[in-house]
Design goal:
Helices cover 25% and strands 23% of the residues. The chain is an alpha+beta fold and 873 residues long. The strands form ten sheets. Strands 34, 35, 36, 37, 39, 40 and 44 form a seven-stranded antiparallel β-sheet that branches. The chain has a six-stranded parallel β-sheet with strand order 20-19-18-17-16-23. A hairpin with a 2-residue loop joins strand 1 and strand 2. It has 20 helices and 44 strands. The N terminus is likely disordered. Helix 16 crosses helix 17 and helix 19 packs antiparallel against helix 20.
């Protein structure tokens, strides 16, 4: 309920803070000056503190801080002969009047919260900083970066906003500024001596710190809905036909997909033009990487190819390496040179410089906008060249390129801007999505990514996209490059990560085509993608919450449990939205099981893949087969999901509402058109969902009337209400009317799936403006025996694996014992006759305990016996 109230409050505040684009002049009532010092009260826990040797304070937006015109917090100012004291409800600033530059002797910030004391002065180290993120994981094996000549160095993440010290100081003194032109452009600060600081004091309310940060630095944009689908990507010189064949294979194998990323070989380069080793450009970079003209040998009719992609509901991204400028062989070279007043007599490249506004405007207008009109949806901007501008000393090329590309799409397109690039520094959360780079193919790389991804939320960079499966082989090692277990576990992590994108280097031996792997692993790979798509309503709702609150989809446990040491110690565990905790499997299995050591916070947590309810407030060692993941759902949680879908381009008019065992719960489902900017102006809708456990053991689910509207919205939708991992009910009513059990699914009936012990209630298309009330009643016997299903989903799944293993080893004429055969089809009997569910489960549990002895009596090979027994112990 607390999270819901925060969500509603933030949603109602959208009109106040939405976007906050370059509104840098603070309310005069929030400003207090004293000689060459100025204090600006931004929120009760966030102050700006400036000292300028000439008393000329800066009111322009900086690259990091773009908004200061916020509601003035309540404060009290008092002065003595020597001291100025400013106090809000959360912080107190004490400054020695007319004492000049901020020092440890003249400035003190303290907190008013008795539960968390802050006493900060300039120079105080932020020892408890929990870090932020890092520009790239190129050449990294786990957290070790290959620096060449057989040497490595450990990655040191940049500091983030969140610290166990309860405060963070952002020094904006050296940040570049924005001008006030139509397309805000970078300029340097005036010469002079100054300090420009932002002090965040939040104690252990980490969420508040991030919310305050997005107030002054801009919101985390909501990506297009398709961005949360499957991205196919690899470094390969694909032709038009090869990509069509690839998509055909995805379709034939029923693998959902939304994005087609085409790496650098879509265009002509110097090496392709001359069939020789490309020369270096004037900056010493390889000219063979840069190009903007379609390579007609691979794409003879680019426009037709892009039209085909649109017919297939695919979004297309093209890779760009812009460092070498505009070469003379580019189709638009002459037009570009004329626009730049560039002398072409020397037959030179027109040099690249992203800080040159004229160059960037022409790059978009002359070269990139026409490609967009042909059907390119967004750019993969792969900048790996010199780190800072040649024109403006100290300006990060990565940071500024991100700004230029994202805001150009924002300004000139009707669709939501989307950019795929590297982290450029603080403030880059405004320009998603991150490309983490070329990691090594190893378990170590997989093991580092959960921590790396969640920790990036400490700077609001919530949309990292990793090369799922890894990029480069680890040295000469070829063992891991197509390791099916490693790739399966990486895909399972991708299911519960911000962006699901597979990728590899240009190496024909490495495969990311799932259908090329052994069938046992392949099936689990497919299921990982299917689950990702099923979860999209939940993911998209949490992405909207990230926009509203500054809390990223994947975030550390300590946001929710700052007082629990385990929330800091279990670094690979993270929240996926509000209601799901993940601890991805990042190490190979032993004896067919991967073991993880997981900590669960206070409360009850439902282990999704085994159906086990676990008490929180402690750590567990848990074991998982290759088809299972350590996914934990808050008891009672409602997770909105989709039925099987192949693409996210269309607005879906059916919804799964899955309720997990536990207590009362309330949440909201978010919806919008998916790829326009209307969500910034209330072009969206919310639907409240509430479940209540009654004193008599019954369950009531209410789907409230949808609030809001958006283009393309369906007036009605159908529902599959799922009561997951529980005994079947005795009676079900929908809006007061009894509905009957039916083995075959049909509208206005219910049935029971025995493999996951789930009650399904099928509601036909219903107007979304109407309230739906579902009442589920249970017999006294079912209420009494509710715990008997605890862990049974996992037992049934593992018995099926054990049985298949034995059947595949049988000799002609051999048979499995009847007890094993009977136990293995318990799920079917539950579906045929749910009224006898309790007896069937009692029988299953009784037989299950004796299965090791039964298996041992069968004349299989000893190895098979032991392996089969291992699955059910």
């Amino acid at each position: 309920m607390k999270n819901l109230l925060l969500f509603v409050f933030i949603f109602l505040s959208i009109n106040i803070y939405a976007q906050q684009k370059n509104n840098p002049l603070a309310n005069a009532a929030a400003i207090i000056e004293n000689g060459n010092v100025r204090f600006t009260l931004l929120t009760p826990g966030l102050f700006r503190m400036e000292w300028d040797s000439l008393g000329k304070f800066e009111d322009n937006a900086s690259l990091v801080v773009i908004n200061r015109n916020l509601p003035v917090p309540a404060f009290k100012k008092t002065e003595t002969r020597n001291w100025l004291v400013i106090a809000t409800d959360e912080l107190i600033i004490k400054y020695k009047k007319n004492s000049g530059r901020f020092t440890a002797e003249n400035l003190l910030v303290t907190s008013t919260n008795n539960n968390f004391k802050i006493a900060w002065k300039p120079g105080t180290p932020n020892n408890g900083n929990l870090k932020g993120t890092y520009r790239t994981l190129d050449r990294c094996n786990g957290n070790l970066e290959d620096t060449g000549h057989g040497k490595t160095k450990e990655i040191t993440l940049e500091d983030g906003l969140i610290s166990r010290d309860g405060w963070f100081l952002w020094d904006d003194t050296k940040s570049f500024l924005f001008d006030s032109s139509d397309w805000n452009w970078v300029h340097e600060r005036p010469s002079g001596s100054r300090q420009d600081w932002y002090f965040f004091g939040y104690g252990n309310d980490y969420k508040k710190a991030l919310y305050d940060f997005t107030k002054i630095s801009g919101k985390i944009p909501l990506p297009p809905r398709y961005a949360f689908g499957y991205w196919w990507s690899r470094y390969w010189n694909y032709s038009d036909q090869e990509l069509k064949d690839l998509v055909g294979n995805l379709d034939r194998n029923q693998i959902p997909h939304d994005v087609l990323v085409i790496d650098m070989d879509w265009h002509n380069t110097e090496s392709l033009r001359t069939n020789s080793k490309p020369p270096l450009d004037e900056f010493g970079q390889k000219t063979g990487w840069t190009g903007y003209t379609w390579n007609k040998d691979y794409f003879p009719e680019p426009t037709k190819f892009l039209e085909w992609a649109k017919e297939k509901n695919l979004q297309v991204s093209l890779n760009l390496h812009p460092a070498s400028g505009i070469s003379m062989y580019e189709e638009k070279y002459g037009e570009f040179a004329k626009a730049m007043d560039f002398d072409t007599a020397g037959h030179h490249n027109i040099p690249f410089e992203c800080a040159d506004k004229k160059f960037m405007q022409n790059l978009f207008q002359i070269i990139l906008h026409p490609l967009k009109k042909e059907g390119v949806d967004f750019w993969w901007l792969d900048w790996q060249q010199w780190p800072t501008s040649k024109k403006m000393q100290g300006l990060s090329n990565t940071w500024w390129l991100n700004y230029c590309f994202f805001t150009d799409m924002e300004k000139f397109g009707d669709e939501r801007p989307l950019l795929f690039h590297r982290w450029g520094g603080m403030g880059n959360h405004r320009y998603e999505i991150g490309f983490s780079g070329d990691t090594k193919i190893s378990w170590k790389s997989l093991d580092y990514q959960p921590y790396f991804t969640a920790t990036a939320s400490n700077v609001g960079y919530g949309y990292w996209s990793h090369d799922i499966g890894g990029h480069n082989p680890l040295g000469d090692d070829t063992v891991e490059i197509n390791n099916p277990e490693l790739f399966t576990r990486w895909l399972q992590f991708a299911t519960f990560s911000p962006i699901f994108r597979t990728h590899i280097t240009n190496n024909s031996r490495i495969k990311r085509e799932m259908w090329t792997y052994p069938i046992y692993y392949r099936d689990h790979m497919y299921k990982a993608v299917e689950l990702r798509y099923a979860l999209d309503p939940y993911i998209y709702t949490m992405a909207r919450k990230a926009f509203d609150s500054g809390i990223s989809l994947c975030h550390p446990l300590y946001y929710e449990y700052p007082d629990q040491q385990e929330a800091y110690d279990f670094k690979n565990e993270y929240f996926f939205g509000d209601n799901i905790i993940l601890l991805p499997v990042t190490a190979p299995a032993k004896d067919n099981f991967a073991t993880v050591h997981v900590w669960l916070p206070q409360g009850d947590w439902y282990e999704w893949f085994t159906g086990t309810m676990l008490k929180g407030g402690k750590a567990y060692d848990r074991k998982f087969t290759i088809g299972e993941m350590p996914v934990y759902v808050k008891a009672g949680a409602i997770i909105p999901m989709y039925p099987k879908v192949m693409n996210l381009q269309q607005i879906i008019d059916s919804l799964i509402v899955r309720i997990y065992p536990g207590g009362n719960f309330e949440t909201k489902l978010y919806e919008d058109s998916g790829n326009n900017k209307d969500y910034l102006n209330n072009g969206s809708a919310f639907t409240k969902l509430r479940s209540e456990r009654k004193s008599d053991g019954s369950l009531k689910l209410t789907i409230f009337p949808r609030e809001g509207a958006f283009n393309g919205m369906h007036d009605s939708r159908s529902y599959d209400i799922q009561i997951y991992g529980s005994l079947p009910p005795e009676i079900i009513k929908v809006n007061g009317k009894n509905i009957n059990y039916a083995y075959e699914r049909s509208d206005s009936t219910w049935n029971y799936s025995g493999n996951d012990l789930t009650t399904h209630i099928f509601i036909p298309k219903t107007n979304c403006a109407e309230k739906i009330e579902i009442e589920i009643g249970y017999s006294a016997e079912a209420i009494k025996n509710a715990d008997m299903v605890n862990g049974m989903i996992g037992k049934m799944n593992r018995l099926k694996i054990s049985t298949a293993l034995m059947e595949n080893s049988m000799k002609p004429g051999e048979e499995l014992p009847a007890a094993i055969v009977s136990a293995n089809i318990t799920n079917l009997r539950l579906e045929y006759d749910p009224e006898n569910c309790i007896k069937e489960i009692e029988k299953f549990n009784s037989v299950y305990t004796s299965l090791p002895d039964i298996i041992s009596s069968v004349k299989f090979r000893d190895q098979i016996n032991q392996e089969a027994i291992g699955y059910i112990r």
